[in-house]
Specification:
Blueprint (H helix, E strand, L loop, with lengths): L3 H10 L2 E5 L6 E5 L7 E3 L6 E3 L12
Antiparallel strand pairs: 1-2, 3-4
């Protein structure tokens, strides 16, 4: 069975990411491929913020 980090890497390679809203914390599925994303509006709380303010839902611990 693949680990979560391996699956996330495949998703990111395919142009998708899973992030959390910097305001409400809800999960947001992002399509990244071919886009220069600067601002994102959360579909849940409707807050607009920089993409950099939306942390990845999952990351590899070092």
């Amino acid at each position: 069975m693949k680990g979560q980090f391996e699956i996330l890497q495949e998703m990111q390679t395919d142009g998708y990411n899973v992030v959390t809203c910097g305001n409400c914390g809800d999960v947001i599925l992002m399509e990244l491929d071919g886009y220069n994303i600067e601002e994102v509006q959360c579909p849940h709380c409707k807050e607009t913020m920089d993409y950099a303010d939306m942390p990845d839902l999952y990351h590899q611990k070092i």
